[in-house]
Amino acid sequence: MQALCNYEVHRGKLTEPLAALADDAGASPASLDYARTLCEHYELAGKDVDARIQGALDNWDIKRIDGVARNIIRVATIELLAKSVPPKVAVDEGITLAREFGDDESARFVNGVLDPLMKRIAEEA
Question: Which of 1, 76, 119, 122 has the highest CB neighbour number within 10 Å of its CB?
Fold first, then answer.
């Protein structure tokens, strides 16, 4: 999530800040590899990810979402699409991140976007 936020501001290569972010967080090599995979997915399919998110928004534009919440939703959407974790885990992680980096409003908003998105992606399978 932090790498995506950094990418939005600086527009470099998305995976560049990962090593520093992982080091600061004390992340394991496996966590760094997983984060790199998620970032690479966004680099390859970011427009599709954002289009899917936009489709789950009722009368709201993705550009108007707070940057932190937007990138939390992106990470969870990538996990839902990649099926790298169980769908409910991806949604729960997104809500937890929203609580940690935002507030209760952020957590409710993230849940309100991810729940229908999770159902739409499951229907496509």
Answer: 76
> What is the SS3 assignment for 66?
coil
pLDDT given for residue 125 in this prediction: 73
Indicate the number of domains in the chain: 1
Are 116 and 104 spatial neighbours (Cβ–Cβ below 8 Å)?
no
Tell me if 49 sits within 8 A of 81, measured CB to CB: yes
Q: Which domain holds residue 10?
A: 2-124
3 state DSSP class of 65: coil
The torsion region of residue 12 among left (phi > 0), alpha (psi -120 to 50) and beta comes to: beta
- CATH number assigned to the domain comprising residue 9: 1.10.940.10
